Amino acid sequence: MRHKALVLLAMTLILATTAWAASEKILYNFNAFSGDGYYPYSALVADANGNLYGTTQSGGAGYGTAFELKLSGKTYTEVQLHVFIAGVNDGAYPEYSAMVFDKAGNLYGTTYEGGTANVGTVFELVHSGSTWTEKILHSFLGTAGKDGAYPQAGLSFDSAGNLYGTTEYGGKNDEGTVFQMTQSKGKWTYKVIHGFSGGNNGDYPVGGITPGPDGYYYGTTYYGGTTYNEGVVYRLFQARGVWVSQTVFLFNSSVGANPNSTLAIDPAGNLYGATYDGGANNLGTVFKLKRGSNDKYTESVLYSFKGGTNDGEYPYEAGVILDATGDIFGTTHYGGQYNEGTVYELKLTAGKYKEIILHVFADTASNDGYYPLAGVTLFKGNLYGTAYAGGTHGAGVAFEVTP
């Protein structure tokens, strides 16, 4: 493992849509020329002490890294937890997979390539003291074995400790899968629990799985829907030991198109997410699926992005997060004064949402990061995330935004 001192860069921008101000601080500048990881595609996850964890899509040995930003005082130091080396025994290119902790403090994630068939892996980083050891829990096989291929999203745990995830491709129809991993006596067992078939069933899941109430598991597909082919929200559940898929909502461009992120869920079981396209300006939306009687859902558009110098556009694989008051936070890939992306808040007041631009990325002006691909993590009132490009070395940054 290597340790790198961090460069701190403070920026304050006047918000475009409010008189309030939010401050951004660069926590780390990735460096493509030093053996460091670079191009962070994924979101960060925080532990109880405020240390941050994530992945880079490239760097290290050339196939990406898993890293920790270790907090001491007010300073972060990077620690490389694992360098992916590809081949049959390791993964390669962790994409938009935010890692997830188990109760013991171990981390889990996916890589887009590498493994036995070079179509991706599920990995665990086992934590013991100051040491992290990688284990490959599954190598995807693709359609040859009716297995999934090329996972983009991260993993999620249910209350029983089972892991769930998706693959963008693979399965019987090569249109993506949902898989489950169960653990017994320290051994993980892998199972494909759904294969997508297009049409109203959806195809090409890019986001992950969100466990919901009453044994339902929710997700999105980028395409699908017989009429518009602009994506679906689906749910899975078990009936007499068999996994059943139901389509919850079909997107069309007026209400959003091409959802590409994992859904968020509130305590009432309502679902929230973002679409890359569609909406009033065809620049993406934030939407809500309100849970009603008989587990039926009603969709509403909470916000349609406007783009231009004063708003974001095209939320990539960012998704959204909610705080305890119901406010919503996320990022857009483009938009803002320099068209390099934004961090936004949808503030809930009297039952209505108002957008506030918390940060406009400005590498053009100030060595800031730009083009965030993932969403943000909320920890003790501050937002943490990554931008895959920009910064001092042009290889991406980790940032903090204080609303």
Task: Give a verbal description of the structure.
The chain is mainly beta. It has one domain (3-402): Methylamine Dehydrogenase, Chain H (7 Propeller), CATH 2.130.10.10. The protein starts with a strand and ends with a strand.
Structural class computed from helices and strand pairing: mainly beta
Global morphology: globular
Mean pLDDT: 93
Full CATH superfamily name: YVTN repeat-like/Quinoprotein amine dehydrogenase
Main beta-sheet annotation:
5 strands, antiparallel
Helical content stands at: under 10%
The CATH topology assignment is Methylamine Dehydrogenase, Chain H
**Regarding CATH, which class?**
Mainly Beta
How many helix segments? 1
Q: Which residues sit in consecutive blocks of at least 5 with pLDDT less than 50?
A: 1-20
Query: What is the straight-line distance between the termini?
Result: 34 Å
The amount of beta strand, in percent, is: over 45%
Total E-strand runs: 41
